Amino acid sequence: MTDFLNLLTHENTLKDNTEKLSIDELKVVASRLQLFIAHREMQSVDDKVERNAHIMRIRKQMYKIGLRVNDVRSAIKAPRKLK
Question: Max Cα separation, the chain?
Fold first, then answer.
């Protein structure tokens, strides 16, 4: 993985390793990379949407039982009594 990462992130190394590729082959590689990037961006957005939906479900449950965020915060900050 490290060698591959070095290949992709160092311009001269990448240039040296792609010199023998034709323009068409480089365009295919570039389009595939663009697809990977777009997929990762969509996944990131999906993850954020899912996380926010989960937070909203928890907040609704808290509201139904009469629990507020400040109640939780104060419980976390309160020191525990030792027996």
Answer: 75
